[in-house]
Amino acid sequence: MKAEFQDINFKLCVIQELMYNQGILLPKFDIKEFVKNYKKRKINIQKEGYKIIHEVLDYFQQLEIPADLLKNITKIYQFGKIYGQICPFWSGEDNQFDITNTADALLLPNLKKMTIFYSEDKSILDQLRALNIEAEYL
């Protein structure tokens, strides 16, 4: 059974934890390999890498995460390799990866702590705390 996420940015945090931190969601995505094997068009990382490369984001949106892996997540630190896969030269100075919906936290039965990117929506931390998740901004 696969997990269904409502917020792509929450899902990206989960993928970061399972794929890159824990190494249990495989294979590990590598943008250079993806670009080399992508057939629909030529993706130029050097030219396009300052914005989200939509084919990469689509890959992660469609990636199935087995629901049984979600029990392995006790903490999420919203930072890591995944963002450099989607937007290789991302400065981190905008809100394109902000979590806007906390409902996906309910998919993670053992989640106790989240450190997330700063959000203009101040209620995000309160919503996580209401779910008994220790929450703070990076």
Describe the structure.
This protein is mainly α. Helix content is 35%, strand content 8%. It has helices spanning 8-21, 31-37, 45-48, 54-62, 81-86, 123-130, and strands at 75-77, 113-116, 134-137. A three-stranded parallel β-sheet has the order 1-2-3. The longest helix has 14 residues, at 8-21. The chain is globular. The chain starts with 7 loop residues before the first helix and ends with a strand. The mean pLDDT is 96.
Distance between the termini: 32 Å
Average pLDDT for all residues: 96
SS-derived structural category? mainly alpha
Cα radius of gyration in angstroms: 15 Å
Give the tags.
3-stranded parallel beta sheet, 6 helices, globular, mainly alpha, 138 residues
Concise summary:
The chain has 138 residues and is mainly alpha-helical. It is built from 6 helices and 3 strands; from the N terminus they run ααααβαβαβ.
Detail the topology: elements first, then pairings:
Layout: H1 8-21, H2 31-37, H3 45-48, H4 54-62, E1 75-77, H5 81-86, E2 113-116, H6 123-130, E3 134-137
Parallel strand pairs: 1-2, 2-3
